[in-house]
Specification:
Length: 215
């Protein structure tokens, strides 16, 4: 169902109960509000318009669309955040990337760190970076156009975008990491959080939420 918080600002709800709220975040919407009046519209502020007690559990990049989880109680937020921290959740993304895919599937492992002079960009740094791991699978290919399934094991900032770039497969529309001709191929970043599996914070049963692919 879709709940309209204010005119022109829909919140696409995938699942909810008395403990949690799962939404399909549109591309180019902040997960949480930033500084300044022009950065107040976000998933969190829209959720709070419906449920003032809504709390953020995790974030998606502004440019990324797809499944995002919020909590309705502090206890639920604590337990769900613990699951993310302990890597007990399962996340699956899809992306459209450009280039020559090196294999039908594989692992991408690079140490990542914030590129401070150019933040929020991240970079590979073998001396100071933190380990990161992504499993990938090639789903479709048409020339140098590739549809990828991406499963992040770690959750570093911009991990999937940097990993794809480092693999020689920049994501279409990626204004941070792709070359200009690949950026120009899409008006938005073609990266989508497709599935998220987690354990209910009180019921302890497994829940899988899926956001329809927009590309």
């Amino acid at each position: 169902m879709t709940a309209k918080v204010q005119s022109g600002n829909p919140l696409d709800i995938l699942y909810e109960d008395d403990q949690l709220l799962v939404v399909n975040k549109p591309a180019d919407l902040l997960s949480v509000a930033g500084r300044g009046p022009h950065k107040q519209d976000s998933v969190h502020t829209r959720a709070q318009a419906l449920y003032p007690q809504a709390l953020v559990v995790h974030r998606l990049d502004c440019a990324t669309s797809g499944v995002m989880l919020l909590a309705k109680t502090k206890a639920a937020q604590s337990e769900l955040s613990r699951q993310f921290q302990m890597r007990e959740t399962a996340k699956e993304y899809q992306a459209i990337a450009w280039g020559d895919c090196p294999a039908a599937c594989g692992d991408i492992q690079f140490p990542l760190i914030t590129d401070w002079p150019n933040r929020p960009r991240q970079k590979i740094c073998y001396q100071h970076g933190k380990p990161s791991l992504t499993h990938y699978q090639l789903l479709e290919q048409d020339g140098r156009w590739n549809r990828l399934r991406l499963i992040p094991v770690t959750g570093r900032s911009h991990q999937l975008r940097v990993h794809c770039m480092a693999l020689g497969l920049p994501i279409l529309g990626d204004r941070f990491y792709a070359p200009e001709h690949v950026v120009a191929m899409s008006q938005r970043l073609l990266l989508h959080a497709h599935h998220l599996r987690f354990q209910h914070p009180t019921g302890r049963h497994s829940i899988t939420c899926s956001a329809p692919l927009p590309f």
